[in-house]
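User: Quick sanity check before I run a bigger batch. Here is a single chain. Can you write out its predicted 3D structure?
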Amino acid sequence: MISFTVRMRFAPEDRAEIRSILQNLGAASRQEPGCVNYVTHSVENDPDTIVIYEQYRDAEALEVHRSSGHFDQYATNGLYRKVRERSLETLQEII
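Assistant: Done. Predicted structure follows.
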């Protein structure tokens, strides 16, 4: 299982557009057979910071996600063009 968070900060004037993009990206991503979990969050008291929690069955499923048409449309040509700051944290499960 591959799990990670993506934290992004956007300009306040882009808030409505970013939320719309996230709704579309999330809905499409959750339909992928290898996607286990895809949840978008805004940070309390900081609505311009978004955190996405993602889980994929394996590396192949993650690659399918990143090469999908909806990722290209909503992430590469949507979120990534508006983002001011971005960080990714890969998570290790504690058993």
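The longest helix spans residues 15-30.

User: Great, the batch can go ahead then.
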